[in-house]
Amino acid sequence: MNEGAEGMALRWFAGTARRSRAPVEDETVLARVADGDAAALGELYERYSRPLFAFLFRLAGDRGTAEEILQDTLLAVWRSAGTYRSRSSVSTWLFGVARRQAHNRLRGLPPPLPADPADGADPVPGPEELAVGGDRVQQTLARLPLAQREVVVLAYLNDLGHQEIADILAIPVGTVKSRLHHARATLRGCIDARVD
């Protein structure tokens, strides 16, 4: 299979989306947010906006909606930073907040169809578009039920382990594994259908 730009972009993104190497520093920054330090919220944004946006984009299927959910997430972090209790890493907690905001926004809505590029739009994707994959990847992910889509995005695009995913989604590790198994079967069917 030819990897192409999408495969390279996904590998690049997986490398940039790894957990912060300074969990204690993340906790310190989040404590500053809880104390009302807006600059600390900016630091968290700088560290986590890219992987959170990619996660939300994969769930929402639409750039504008993902950006709105990311803003909702930041507002929720600002309001609830004091509730963080160190039971998980800050990154896991942030993904959990983002997931809840996405579910609040997307509840009952079908994934949007990819928009046609505007007249005169640049056909070459920028770095951010490459980081979140192409239309083919998004269309294939959109075929998955939301519960399966979120485990696939967290596992393969955010490079999180089963336990971290279970913590974010508040489900048992066995359920994470089951959802990944069913998602892989669905994705395999989509790929086989395209090959035929």
From TrEMBL:
Superkingdom of the source species: Bacteria
Q: Which residues form the RNA polymerase sigma factor 70 region 4 type domain?
A: 136-187
Q: Does the keyword Transcription regulation apply?
A: yes
Does the UniProt entry include the keyword Cell membrane? no
Keywords from the UniProt entry: DNA-binding, Sigma factor, Transcription, Transcription regulation
Identify the Pfam families for this entry.
Sigma70_r2 (PF04542), Sigma70_r4_2 (PF08281)
Q: Which SUPFAM superfamilies did the record assign?
A: Sigma2 domain of RNA polymerase sigma factors, Sigma3 and sigma4 domains of RNA polymerase sigma factors
Q: Which residues form the RNA polymerase sigma-70 region domain?
A: 44-107
Q: Which residues form a coiled coil?
A: none
> Family, per the entry?
Belongs to the sigma-70 factor family. ECF subfamily.
Q: What is this protein called?
A: RNA polymerase sigma factor
